[in-house]
Amino acid sequence: MNMVDLIKKKRNGHELAEEEIEYVISAYTADSIPDYQMAALMMAVYFTGMSKRETADFTMAMAHSGKMADLSAINGVKVDKHSTGGVADTTTLVLAPLVAACGAPVAKMAGRGLGHTGGTIDKLEAIPGMRTSLSMDEFIRNVNSIGLAIISQTDDLAPADKKLYALRDVTATVDIMPLIASSIMSKKLAAGADAIVLDVKVGQGAFMKDYKSALELADIMVNIGESAGKRTMAAITDMNQPLGLAIGNSLEVIEACETLKGRGHRDLLDVCMFLGSYMLMLAGIASTREEAVAELEHALESGSGFAKLKQMVEVQGGNADALDDYSLLTQARIKYEIKAENNAYISSLSAENLGLCAMRLGAGRMIKDDSIDLSAGIMLNKKVGDFVRKGETIAVVHTNDRQKLSQVLPDILSSIQMTEKPVARPKLIHALVSRDGVESF
């Protein structure tokens, strides 16, 4: 095939055939197509778009560009969960143990944080001794043994996506809806799950800033999953403020443990219950959402969810005592309290800005090779709509660097807005997208 002809075909608004897409992805992955030609094709896609069929074919070609995980040796229906990225979004550490405790196998490959969003693997590695790089045999054995394993994504998982995303990042072609969806779903499909529940974040701290864009992305990804023969659902949840209270790796481990012990913030738990209910339904554990929620609540109240988290940590070499004795986790030397100057209500908490502030304190990465401080971050005591009395602590900044604290503190303060008038709590869950359509909440 001639790449120039394919670029021209896409530029003129025509659909690429499945075999043409497969050629482009396989040849680009093998370095047979130069970056400048692939960049031209991506720009053509930017202006002319892709049909649902093209998007599904493009995703499958990227998924098959490396090894496809074979999880057939794991008993039961494997349901994966993926978030499009958020701040204080500690759902996996709470959700995965709860779902596993209800009898659904959770075999999850997760990523690291970048920019203002956190990564599950970084959080797990805040636990002393925790291993997240397991062989596929050990991964499968652990899931069959205890029902739960979370490991880091392997380098051979959808390599075309890694290469293509790096190119799009420097050619202003990241924000193309079909390619965003393909990037996410190619990794999910390559990870080998039988069904997928997506958490599409929307709002100021999310990649999708408005509901219409989030709904479009959710619809495309559900279509991709269903086209690949995987039952797929997508929740649209709010990210105008941090989901939980903790922003930072050790802090989020603590919050996950407290949530599983029944002492977490209701927002984080509600999203976990919502996502988890559909995971249990897709896994065949429950037939209705009400039945699934009841199962999850029992796992929470009985302590079996927390016990499952401890079990996974032990099996993967971590010190499970740290989940009860938080002093065994890495602690920041400096803890700076932000106190209210007057009686007031929290009117807004900028999720993106607070995430970026935590990153600058050392909790995250600007580029993927940056080292991180597992103890750094921000612990919120209040959320939007909460009343704060004068002198009461609104948040605590955790850091090991006083210079960073002085540099970042003004931006943290500007991210927390107050008002004298009562403020309504923001809507947490907006919609569920499935093959049956859109259900609003």
Structure notes:
This protein is of the alpha+beta class. It has three domains: 3-49, Transferase, Pyrimidine Nucleoside Phosphorylase, Chain A, domain 3 (Up-down Bundle); 79-324 and 430-440, Nucleoside phosphorylase/phosphoribosyltransferase catalytic domain (Pyrimidine Nucleoside Phosphorylase, Chain A, domain 2), CATH 3.40.1030.10; 331-419, Aldehyde Oxidoreductase, domain 3 (Alpha-Beta Complex), CATH 3.90.1170.30. It is 45% helix and 16% strand. The chain contains 16 helices and 14 strands. The protein has helices spanning 3-11, 18-29, 35-48, 52-63, 91-101, 120-124, 136-146, 159-169, 177-190, 211-227, 249-260, 266-282, 289-302, 304-315, 351-363, 402-415; strands at 79-83, 106-110, 148-152, 195-202, 231-238, 246-247, 334-339, 344-349, 377-380, 387-388, 393-399, 416-419, 429-434, 437-440. The strands form four sheets. The chain has a five-stranded mixed sheet, with helices on both faces. The protein has a four-stranded antiparallel sheet with strand order 6-9-11-7, with helices on both faces. A three-stranded antiparallel sheet has the order 10-8-12. Helix 10 (211-227) links the parallel strand 4 and strand 5 (231-238). The termini are far apart. The model has no long low-confidence stretch (mean pLDDT 94).
In short:
The chain has 441 residues and is of the alpha+beta class.
Mean pLDDT: 94
Secondary-structure element order, as H and E? HHHHEHEHHEHHEHEEHHHHEEHEEEHEEE
Main β-sheet: number of strands, strand sense, barrel status? 5 strands, mixed
> What is the helical fraction, as a range of percent?
40-55%
User: What's the CATH H-level homologous superfamily of the largest domain?
Assistant: Nucleoside phosphorylase/phosphoribosyltransferase catalytic domain
Task: Kindly report the CATH topology of the largest domain.
Answer: Pyrimidine Nucleoside Phosphorylase, Chain A, domain 2
| CATH class membership of the largest domain | Alpha Beta
What proportion strand? 15-25%
Strand order of the largest sheet: 1-4-5-13-14
- The low-pLDDT segments are none
The end-to-end span amounts to 48 Å
Shape: globular
- In CATH, the architecture of the largest domain is 3-Layer(aba) Sandwich
Structural class assignment: alpha+beta
